[in-house]
Amino acid sequence: MTATLDVPRQRRSERLWTVADAAAFLGVPAKTLYQWRYQETGPPSHRVGRYVRYVPDEVHAWVQAQP
């Protein structure tokens, strides 16, 4: 039996997450998110100017899709 996470859904009007926000939600160091981004294995990320941002709904979906 596979355990499922009950992750609250975010409203589309909420702001994008910074690397620190996403790292805090996932419980991993920010460096891990940068490594996952480089390896293309982590949650979807987006460049906004010179910054990396995460869409909360995409991070939630990525968490749910993990085995």
Q: Topology of this protein?
A:
Elements: H1 19-26, H2 30-39, E1 46-48, E2 51-53, H3 56-65
Sum up the structure in keywords:
single chain, 67 residues, two-stranded antiparallel sheet, mainly alpha, 42% helix
Can you put this structure into words, describing what you see?
The protein is mainly alpha-helical and 67 residues long. The protein is 42% helix and 9% strand. It has helices at 19-26, 30-39, 56-65; strands at 46-48, 51-53. Strands 1-2 form a two-stranded antiparallel ribbon. Strand 1 and strand 2 form a beta hairpin. Helix 1 (19-26) crosses helix 2 (30-39). The protein starts with 18 loop residues before the first helix and ends with a helix. The relative contact order is 0.23. The model has no long low-confidence stretch (mean pLDDT 88).
Largest sheet: 2 strands, antiparallel
Q: Summarize model confidence as the mean pLDDT.
A: 88
Query: Reading side by side through the largest sheet, how are the strands ordered?
Result: 1-2
Any low-confidence stretches, pLDDT <50, length ≥5? none
Name the beta content range: 5-15%
Class based on secondary structure composition and strand pairing: mainly alpha
Quaternary structure type: single chain
